[in-house]
Amino acid sequence: MLMTFGLIPIALAAQSYQISKGEGEVMVTGTSTLHDWEEVAEQKSGSISVDKTGELPTISTLKFTVEAESLKSGKGAMDKNTYKALDTKNHKQIVFNMKSVKSISPVSSNKYKVVANGDLTIAGSTKTIDLPFDLTLDEGKVLLEGKKGLKMTDFNIEPPKALLGTITTGNEIEVHYNTVWK
Questions:
Q1: What is the pLDDT of residues 18-71, one digit of tens each?
Q2: Structural domain boundaries of the chain?
Q3: Whole-model pTM?
Q4: DSSP code, position 5
Q5: CA distance 137 to 148
Q6: Where are the transmembrane segments (predicted)?
């Protein structure tokens, strides 16, 4: 019986946080032959479990989801091209699911540089990636900030074209994330 009680403090030490929908931002940026562009994710969700009882925090889970059709550029035609390229009729969500933490190092008393490894699924294609971010632990909330470059073709996505192919989107995109978890 003593063994069982000895494990309870460890189990209770990790705290789970949910993404705060009204705070933070996830944005995708890229280029085209006409202009640079950006799209902001209007619907995102996720959870992270962090244990901060040790010298360095440990992250046991991190899952992040963006509703694919919530990516908005402010230009309806561009959004339609994006949804077609992402095949949102068949693949409604973009999901990152962490498998492990590769590294974590302190920046200040409550801020850490983290590299998480996990599966990223876009348009039904899954790749294992390293996701770098700054983790800040701040009175009942967690902040994740960073950016990650990706290639559309790595996820079997044909970069969108417009006006009979005279305007082409660059293959390389960058995902910027500045999220708040409570």
A1: 999 889 999 999 998 888 999 999 999 999 999 988 889 999 999 999 999 999
A2: 14-181
A3: 0.89
A4: H
A5: 21
A6: none
